[in-house]
């Protein structure tokens, strides 16, 4: 997705979001929700199979009480049944109005598998 396709209020956040997704690739999905239209407006590294324009399903997210805050981390299960840790933060425009929510969804299942293997290796036979 090119920067010109993003809503204007989102553009200042795009480099930071893309940096996080690149750093934690392929384990991190970033989804931006427009809180006024209840739609996904941007997505990077989609694990959830959602697309831009899909309903945000904001009622499934933890409440942010309208303030620009960080919520989480909280646990979720992906559509594939994998363990995911998520963090949601409010995004504000240049006037301080809350416009969107950034959801970072981290697939931690590979790390859980490593922990399980390490535990089995440490257990005496």
Layout of helices and strands, plus pairs?
Layout: H1 14-23, E1 28-34, E2 39-44, E3 70-77, E4 83-92, E5 98-107, H2 109-122
Commentary on this structure:
- Helices cover 19% and strands 33% of the residues.
- By secondary structure, it is of the alpha+beta class.
- The protein has a five-stranded antiparallel β-sheet.
- The longest helix has 14 residues, at 109-122.
- It is elongated and about 60 Å long.
- The termini are far apart.
Placed side by side, the strands forming the largest sheet appear as 2-1-5-4-3
N- to C-terminal distance: 52 Å
Computed over alpha carbons, the radius of gyration is: 16 Å
Can you tell me the residue ranges where pLDDT is under 50 for at least 5 consecutive residues?
Answer: none
DSSP, total strands: 5
For this structure, the quaternary state is: single chain
What share of residues is helical?
A: 10-25%
- The DSSP helix count reads 2
The percentage of residues in β strands lies in 25-35%
Report on the biggest sheet.
5 strands, antiparallel
């Amino acid at each position: 997705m090119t920067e010109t396709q993003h809503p204007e209020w989102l553009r200042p956040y795009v480099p930071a979001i893309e940096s996080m997704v690149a750093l934690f690739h392929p384990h991190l999905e970033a989804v931006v929700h427009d809180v006024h239209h209840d739609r996904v407006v941007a997505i990077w590294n989609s694990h959830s199979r959602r697309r831009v324009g899909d309903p945000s399903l904001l009622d499934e997210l933890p409440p942010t009480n309208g303030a620009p805050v960080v919520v989480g981390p909280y646990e979720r299960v992906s559509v594939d049944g994998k363990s995911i840790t998520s963090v949601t933060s409010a995004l504000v425009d240049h006037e301080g109005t809350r416009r969107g929510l950034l959801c970072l969804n981290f697939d931690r299942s590979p790390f859980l598998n490593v922990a399980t293997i390490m535990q089995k290796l440490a257990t005496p036979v």
